[in-house]
Amino acid sequence: MADHFFAWSLTTVDESLRYHCRRELTAWGKESPEEFLKLLELTYPADDPQMGEELVRVASGVACLLRPEDTGSLTTLARWALTEIFDDGKIQEVQNIVIRHMGRIIVERAFYHGLLEEADLESARPPYPTADALLELDREAASAANETFGPIFMDLGWYVLKTGYEGLLGG
Fold first, then answer.
1. In the structure, what pLDDT confidence band is assigned to residue 140 with cuts at 50, 70 and 90?
2. Strand ranges (E), 12-166
3. Are 85 and 94 in contact (CB under 8 A)?
4. What is the pTM of this model?
């Protein structure tokens, strides 16, 4: 039950608590990889982006700490990553670069130990398929005459956003 507490504690804004929970979950996952996978399957789909990112970070740590003779656990973890992150249709939804990179680490580790095929590895390597959906243009922000963009102001608004969009929309 403590594993669930640690997993949900990954949603906190307290970085030191998240660090502690990641460390504990990684150590536990190394010792109990099958139980860790059950926790991953239960909590990753929770639709909490921060927790999802943190869990995949932990999963990559577990994958790197598993001994070469733990082939079943590493294979299962890599298959999870291939299904939940790199599967057709899912990779377009996963825009988080940390999740993509950590998932790739898991798959690369399994491939290194001869547990996956080259085709599996290729699906975890960029370039990834892109989604057809584009972000909607905020016309009010695009035509704003002032130098603030909602909560973004001062240096970030003046030097990053404004400079980055000058000339793009005829301004």
1. confident
2. none
3. yes
4. 0.78
